[in-house]
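Colleagues,

For the teaching module next term, I've prepared a clean inverse folding example: a structure given as tokens, and then the sequence designed for it. I'd like students to try predicting residues themselves before seeing the answer, so please don't circulate the second half yet.
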């Protein structure tokens, strides 16, 4: 149940991020609409709560947990690059967007593989 809820909010989170970046590019005034401004924060808060719940339910902190630390570090990069993608313009926006999407993909792969260095 929690896993499905978490995966649902993962999907909602990436959809809201991509949508906000494209709104920032095409119709930045829409980013000031209250539900567009607040909605992603609610989605991401629930995403984090369900993620932490899964970590504690799965007893993943009792064994090798480097992958969880890696996900949290890359999550900070995702948030920073995502913020930059929404607030900047031009080439910088799209470079930050690409970096944020790369962080998101890394987090997803690590979540499935449970290995921070899956590419080695």
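(Answer key — instructors only)
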């Amino acid at each position: 149940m929690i896993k499905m809820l978490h995966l649902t909010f993962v999907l909602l989170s990436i959809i809201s991020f991509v949508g906000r970046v494209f709104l920032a590019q095409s119709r930045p005034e829409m980013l000031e609409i209250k539900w567009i401004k607040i909605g992603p924060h609610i989605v991401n808060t629930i995403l984090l709560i369900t993620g932490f719940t899964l970590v504690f339910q799965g007893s993943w902190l009792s064994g090798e947990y480097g992958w969880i630390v890696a996900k949290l570090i890359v999550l900070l990069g995702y948030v920073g690059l995502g913020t930059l993608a929404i607030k900047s313009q031009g080439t910088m926006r799209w470079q930050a967007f690409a970096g944020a999407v790369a962080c998101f993909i890394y987090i997803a792969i690590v979540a499935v593989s449970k290995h921070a260095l899956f590419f080695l």
